[in-house]
Design brief:
The protein has 18 helices and 24 strands. The chain is α+β, with helices and mostly antiparallel strands. A hairpin with a 4-residue loop joins strand 14 and strand 15. Helix 5 crosses helix 6.
């Protein structure tokens, strides 16, 4: 404990200092070896006993007398404790259990305290997932909080006393590596790398199961260590032969869960960047080695590079390359280094699989994909040999997110530009297929994409007629009147082709559609090329026409029906009044507590609670626009000051 805040601690761990008092004294003395020393509770008791003192509750800690070398004066001032010290009083660890999902939050209950650390006090809302054993049931108001084992909380849920037990899992050599991986959860040090032989550990390898046991005197107790090779990832993992179980009250209650790991200290001032980095690294490693990671990466890479709807065999082949770190092509070429997650092997499997290289599949409407908008733009620029002017040192594509819905490094939300499982309306969706890129195909963005590519072909990369560039100092103000001059541009498409119109169109078809452009489209574009006033105009026109072909926008072969598209059927008016519900669909996550917050609450000071929980991101009262409420715990709530229309509509009764 310190003079202000108190919390529980494991007496087996060196997490606090000694504080020793004489009988009846409230001023403690130190018996430390160095400043800031921490020790176990037993060590602290021994230090006090060596001084003829006792562990105690205290108000301050007496500094040892020291002599100032400059003044030769002795000092021995008492000061309020600024560290954590072992106290003599017991301390209970409780859990609050949420009624709706069984999540738990830690609550400390010292037998004597001035104030508890707020991360573990009665109002703690840092709930975390736990895995309840048995049938998965947990104390809740529905079962009277474990038939009276716990206390019902006024806000819902239960407050329960706990006890923790540590027990061994295996009493002998496990039957398989899979059994070890499925039953053990507590990691251990590598006995060889950390030379645990000095502590008496001896190795007992089992070649049949692939499990190596490290025991002291052959005892399979809870201190034994098992080493196994994870065949799926190629890692050697070490586990302690133990499981820690948290029991509600005690082991006879019937409610228990596996103790959850933690990296961060529950003391706010001791939650270090280092520990946060360790926890982040552990989480990322957990994600990386998850069994679902390989097929997840395989599916996403195939969707981005080859086809939106790959067959299961294709996904499995790429996932296997990711897992094993190796891929052998049909020609016998080897890729990868045999290490789990090797991206060279993974990409080779994506691009060299027969589903990616069989031209016949281009005619299958269930294969292939729509191209991403930015891929279309960059593909046009690279294939048509875009040349940037030296007086503009940096190439800039201007406001692409608004124009076409996509720009590199400008994700609109944490969910990227589109969802990989997006199902379009129409025949694709009806066939049970997905089309992620279709999410970006609204009419304004489609028109902007075509306008920008047309502008680039005619005027170069600038701002003429919806171009992807922006006017910059040094450009001519009147450069949007004549095609092919490029005087209002940062650069232009420098591709040239000689020969007949058919040869020019064939070259464009190869570069821009990988040769998929249909014969009918080629004939139409050739005719327009021939009708142009000169070859340069014909080339610009041909580039624009190829850019509107369906083969340019997808990776499939298109089979025209030759029939006109039927006009849409207009809905019939009913002639009756109606009310419409308007949904506001946000592109990403929305922090609801930064939109709506409690403001004036007579029954309970919810704003103070809100301010405490939200800390530095809480909205000040002056940042909230007031809205009145009835049948709510607060009479007045506040809407974020940047949402005046929402507040006005609510106050006028036009918004629920």
């Amino acid at each position: 404990a310190n003079s202000w805040r108190t919390m529980c601690a494991d007496p087996r761990l060196p997490v606090a200092s000694e504080a020793c008092c004489a009988t009846g004294s409230s001023t403690a003395q130190r018996n430390n070896i160095y400043d800031g020393e921490r020790m176990t509770k037993d060590t602290a008791a021994g230090r006090c006993s060596a001084m003829g003192l006792f562990e105690c509750d205290f108000q301050s800690v007496q500094l040892p007398v020291w002599t100032d070398p400059d003044t030769q004066l002795n000092h021995g001032l008492a000061y309020f404790a600024s560290n954590y010290f072992w106290a003599k009083d017991p301390c209970l660890i409780r859990v609050k259990v949420k009624s709706d999902n069984g999540y738990a939050a830690v609550v400390y209950e010292p037998s004597d305290y001035h104030e508890k650390e707020y991360h573990v006090d009665d109002n703690n809302r840092n709930y975390f997932k736990v895995y309840w054993e048995g049938d998965g049931s947990y104390p809740s108001p529905d079962n009277n909080c474990g038939e009276g084992l716990c206390t019902n909380l006024s806000g819902g849920g239960c407050l329960c006393d706990t006890s923790v037990s540590t027990s061994r899992v295996f009493s002998g050599m496990p039957n398989s590596a899979e059994e070890v991986l499925s039953k053990l959860r507590m990691g251990a040090l590598d006995p060889v790398a950390h030379d645990l032989a000095e502590e008496g550990y001896a190795a007992e390898p089992q070649t049949v199961t692939g499990v190596t046991a490290y025991t002291i005197n052959g005892s399979y107790d809870k201190d034994a260590i098992f080493g196994v090779e994870d065949a799926r990832t190629g890692r050697t993992l070490y586990f302690k032969n133990a499981v820690e179980t948290v029991h509600i009250v005690d082991s006879s209650s019937g409610f228990s869960f596996r103790n959850a790991p933690t990296f961060m200290s529950l003391v706010p001032s001791e939650a270090t960047v280092r520990d946060a980095q360790f926890e982040t690294e552990a989480v990322l490693e957990h994600y990386f080695y998850q069994p679902s990671t390989a097929p997840f990466v395989a599916m996403r890479m195939i969707q981005r590079l080859v086809s939106s709807n790959p067959v299961p065999r294709y996904v499995e082949a790429v996932a296997e390359a990711f897992r094993t770190g190796m891929y052998t092509s049909a020609a016998g070429d080897l890729f990868g280094d045999g290490v789990y997650g090797n991206m060279g092997a993974t990409i080779a499997a994506v691009l060299l699989d027969r589903e990616a290289r069989t031209p016949l599949l281009d005619a299958d409407p269930s294969t292939g994909a729509l191209k991403e908008p930015i891929v279309k733009v960059l593909g046009l620029m690279r294939s048509m040999e875009y040349e940037h002017y030296l007086q503009f040192p940096r190439l800039e594509l201007w406001n692409m997110q608004d124009k076409i819905g996509q720009m590199s490094h400008e994700f609109p939300s944490v969910f990227s530009f589109f969802l990989p499982e997006h199902t379009p309306n129409g025949r694709i969706g009806e066939a049970g297929l997905v089309g992620p890129e279709e999410m970006l195909l609204d009419m304004p963005k489609t028109v902007s994409l075509l306008n920008g590519m047309f502008s680039m072909a005619k005027y170069g990369l600038g701002d003429c007629n919806g171009g992807f560039g922006n006017w910059r100092h040094g450009m001519d103000w009147s450069g949007c009147n004549s095609e092919g001059l490029y005087i209002r541009a940062q650069g232009h498409l420098n591709f040239t082709s000689s020969g007949s119109s058919a040869q020019v169109v064939n070259d464009l078809a190869t570069l821009l559609t990988a040769g998929r452009l249909g014969a009918g489209s080629r004939a139409l574009i050739s005719a327009e090329y021939d009708a142009a006033s000169d070859a340069a105009e014909g080339l610009r026109l041909a580039q624009q026409l190829v850019a509107v072909s369906p083969e340019f926008h997808s990776t499939n072969i298109v089979k025209p029906s030759g029939l006109p598209r039927p006009p849409p059927v207009a809905p019939q008016a009913t002639g009756t009044d109606y009310k419409a519900i308007v949904y506001l669909m946000f592109a990403g996550g929305c922090d609801s507590y930064n939109m709506l917050a409690p403001k004036e609450c007579a029954a309970k000071d919810l704003y103070s609670e809100y301010n405490t929980v939200r800390e530095q991101v809480a909205l000040a009262p002056g940042e909230l626009l007031s809205i009145s409420a009835t049948d709510q715990i607060c009479e007045v709530f506040g809407v974020h000051e940047n949402l005046p229309n929402v507040a006005q509509m609510y106050n006028e009764g036009d918004l629920l």
